[in-house]
């Protein structure tokens, strides 16, 4: 989410990574008319005198969404608890959800959407899975929170350790932000160094050291990207463009013996979908080893998403530390960090690096995680995700190009993205060439067709085991129509 997504609650993430807060200028609201006296969610445009800017056949009635969101704006900053949700980067009325199931989401006006956000990743087996729900109800009966050790923590820890190649010990927290924050503190504690290298367009949660404007100069020291972040917090943050190994080498030359950690999204989802170059990943692994620097894979998004063992299994490599979140909570709030035993034993109370959490290891969250992972262990799950997601991206690019648009895109397993530019896109700099105004029109058009995409060009999309081939086909047909109209 957010590189540009970041600004949503969970997301300063996607939207935000690499962008200054000042750049979040809402796009003008597309022409969507709300019919106050229709109780039907959708009605035919032909039945009214509305001149639609986008879709010609259907109109989306968003009356209740509008009412709820207007009330929310008075209650919560921007009407949301995570910035991207407010639709600032695509404009128009945000959709207020009522319920979700399988591949579908329904809004408060009763409109149904095929959902490609999946709660920003966690819903990989489909929303509100029956088995997960049943397990949650069983756990619920024993209480919602213990604040004491419970067996479920062991179970999920064993599953995570067995799955993720580099993880020998794990600590559960409550969000991806917390995981990244704790993990960097640990890397600093272990190495006795302070500097960290992050990449432009990568989002690692909203903790101070990560909110750094990625400067144009590769060797520039970080400056805070949000008011309220002290310069001292980001001074040790160095940034380089994604997929630019030479830039990282230069940072290491200029900061010999000072770099505690390199943290990256091993496949980027927070500036849109960007795959790493093999040489880039291999180069980082070798360079960090040579310099006694810890390599952190932030797999909050990619963990259990692009393969059961995450990006590290997919690419066959071992970082020193790994952060997780999203999927391992199965839709409840969870994060985790883990890695080599000798490093993890520095974490309190085994060691001196302090990090704690009142609700960490919460039995409900552990339960949802356990049963989500169990489903993912079934035969052929990742092959299925790869197949439907590949079809989706291939279809979207085909119909989009046929309609005359410059487009590029890609996917790995159930994670995908596309940009309104020729490409190729290897970095956030490349991603910014995308025609975001066109994306906003596309996004609104797809909503009208009953397809819910992430409300930002700079967010990855997600499929789930509940998405059928028919879902994919009807999404491509909807896109064909919308591409012709924008
Ligand atoms: C979502 C995300 C985070 C932040 O996780 P939250 O649970 O939103 O705090 C961190 N890193 C990556 C790669 C993410 O995608």
UniProtKB/TrEMBL annotation:
<protein>
    <recommendedName>
        <fullName>glutamate-1-semialdehyde 2,1-aminomutase</fullName>
        <ecNumber>5.4.3.8</ecNumber>
    </recommendedName>
</protein>
<dbReference type="GO" id="GO:0009507">
    <property type="term" value="C:chloroplast"/>
</dbReference>
<dbReference type="InterPro" id="IPR004639">
    <property type="entry name" value="4pyrrol_synth_GluAld_NH2Trfase"/>
</dbReference>
<dbReference type="InterPro" id="IPR015424">
    <property type="entry name" value="PyrdxlP-dep_Trfase"/>
</dbReference>
<keyword id="KW-0413">Isomerase</keyword>
<dbReference type="GO" id="GO:0006782">
    <property type="term" value="P:protoporphyrinogen IX biosynthetic process"/>
</dbReference>
<comment type="pathway">
    <text>Porphyrin-containing compound metabolism; protoporphyrin-IX biosynthesis; 5-aminolevulinate from L-glutamyl-tRNA(Glu): step 2/2.</text>
</comment>
<keyword id="KW-0627">Porphyrin biosynthesis</keyword>
<dbReference type="InterPro" id="IPR015421">
    <property type="entry name" value="PyrdxlP-dep_Trfase_major"/>
</dbReference>
<dbReference type="GO" id="GO:0015995">
    <property type="term" value="P:chlorophyll biosynthetic process"/>
</dbReference>
<comment type="similarity">
    <text>Belongs to the class-III pyridoxal-phosphate-dependent aminotransferase family. HemL subfamily.</text>
</comment>
<comment type="subunit">
    <text>Homodimer.</text>
</comment>
<dbReference type="Pfam" id="PF00202">
    <property type="entry name" value="Aminotran_3"/>
</dbReference>
<dbReference type="InterPro" id="IPR049704">
    <property type="entry name" value="Aminotrans_3_PPA_site"/>
</dbReference>
<dbReference type="GO" id="GO:0042286">
    <property type="term" value="F:glutamate-1-semialdehyde 2,1-aminomutase activity"/>
</dbReference>
<comment type="pathway">
    <text>Porphyrin-containing compound metabolism; chlorophyll biosynthesis.</text>
</comment>
<dbReference type="InterPro" id="IPR015422">
    <property type="entry name" value="PyrdxlP-dep_Trfase_small"/>
</dbReference>
<dbReference type="GO" id="GO:0030170">
    <property type="term" value="F:pyridoxal phosphate binding"/>
</dbReference>
<dbReference type="GO" id="GO:0008483">
    <property type="term" value="F:transaminase activity"/>
</dbReference>
<keyword id="KW-0663">Pyridoxal phosphate</keyword>
<dbReference type="InterPro" id="IPR005814">
    <property type="entry name" value="Aminotrans_3"/>
</dbReference>
């Amino acid at each position: 989410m957010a590189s540009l997504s970041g600004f949503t609650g969970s997301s300063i993430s996607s939207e935000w990574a690499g962008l200054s807060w000042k750049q979040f200028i809402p796009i003008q609201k597309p022409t969507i008319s709300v019919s106050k006296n229709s109780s039907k969610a959708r009605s035919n445009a032909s039945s009214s005198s509305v001149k639609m800017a986008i879709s010609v056949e259907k109109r989306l009635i968003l009356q209740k969404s509008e009412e709820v969101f207007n009330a929310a704006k008075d209650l919560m900053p921007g009407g949301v608890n995570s910035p991207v949700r407010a639709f600032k980067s695509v404009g128009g009325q945000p959709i207020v959800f009522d319920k979700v199931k399988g591949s579908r989401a329904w809004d408060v006006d009763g409109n149904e959407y095929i959902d490609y956000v999946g709660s920003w990743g966690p819903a990989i087996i489909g929303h509100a899975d029956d088995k997960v729900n049943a397990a949650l109800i069983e756990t619920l009966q024993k209480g919602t929170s213990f604040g004491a050790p419970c067996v479920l923590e062991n179970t999920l820890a064993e599953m995570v350790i067995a799955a993720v190649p580099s993880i020998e010990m794990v600590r559960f927290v409550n969000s991806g932000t917390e995981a990244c924050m704790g993990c960097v503190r640990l890397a600093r504690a272990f190495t006795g160094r302070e500097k960290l290298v992050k990449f432009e367009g990568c989002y690692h949660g909203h903790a101070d050291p990560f909110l750094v404007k990625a400067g144009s100069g590769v060797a520039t020291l970080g400056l805070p990207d949000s008011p309220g972040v002290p310069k001292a917090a980001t001074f040790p943050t160095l940034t380089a463009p994604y997929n630019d190994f030479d830039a990282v080498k230069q940072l290491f030359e200029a900061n010999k013996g000072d770099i505690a950690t390199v943290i990256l999204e091993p496949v980027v989802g927070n500036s849109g979908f960007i795959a790493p170059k093999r040489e880039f990943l291999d180069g980082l692994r070798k360079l960090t080893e040579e310099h006694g620097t810890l390599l952190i894979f932030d797999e909050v998004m990619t963990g259990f998403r692009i393969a059961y063992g995450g990006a590290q299994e997919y690419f066959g490599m071992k970082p020193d530390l790994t952060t997780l979140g999203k999927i391992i909570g199965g839709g409840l709030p969870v994060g985790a960090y883990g890695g080599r035993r000798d490093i993890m034993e520095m974490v309190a109370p085994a060691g001196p690096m302090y990090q704690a959490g009142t609700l960490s290891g919460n039995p409900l969250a552990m339960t949802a995680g356990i049963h989500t992972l169990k489903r993912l262990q079934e035969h052929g799950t990742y092959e299925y995700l790869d197949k439907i997601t590949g079809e989706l991206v291939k279809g979207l690019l085909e119909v989009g190009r046929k309609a005359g648009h410059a487009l590029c895109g890609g996917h790995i397993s159930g994670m995908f993205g596309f940009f309104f530019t020729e490409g190729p896109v290897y970095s956030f700099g490349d991603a910014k060439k995308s025609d975001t105004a066109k994306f906003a029109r596309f996004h609104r058009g797809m909503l009208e067709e009953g397809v819910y995409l992430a409300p930002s060009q700079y967010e990855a999309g997600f499929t789930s085991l509940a998405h059928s081939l028919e879902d994919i086909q009807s999404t491509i047909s909807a896109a064909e129509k919308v591409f012709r109209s924008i």
